[in-house]
């Protein structure tokens, strides 16, 4: 998930019973940031998957025996 050593140390501090409010708030903020980054990655890969499905459909409709796929990508 991409945690740095500093972030891991920060999370390990939570194992102590006497965690300050500031430490807890910072940790919650860190987790919120990680969640947002993961959501962005999920959206990116969902979009990439949709584009790949569309590309597969386009390829399946082309007559590849005539080399039309090559012309589709070479000719503007």
TrEMBL record:
<dbReference type="GO" id="GO:0003677">
    <property type="term" value="F:DNA binding"/>
</dbReference>
<feature type="domain" description="Transcription regulator MerR DNA binding">
    <location>
        <begin position="1"/>
        <end position="47"/>
    </location>
</feature>
<keyword id="KW-0238">DNA-binding</keyword>
<protein>
    <submittedName>
        <fullName>MerR family DNA-binding protein</fullName>
    </submittedName>
</protein>
<dbReference type="Pfam" id="PF09278">
    <property type="entry name" value="MerR-DNA-bind"/>
</dbReference>
<dbReference type="InterPro" id="IPR015358">
    <property type="entry name" value="Tscrpt_reg_MerR_DNA-bd"/>
</dbReference>
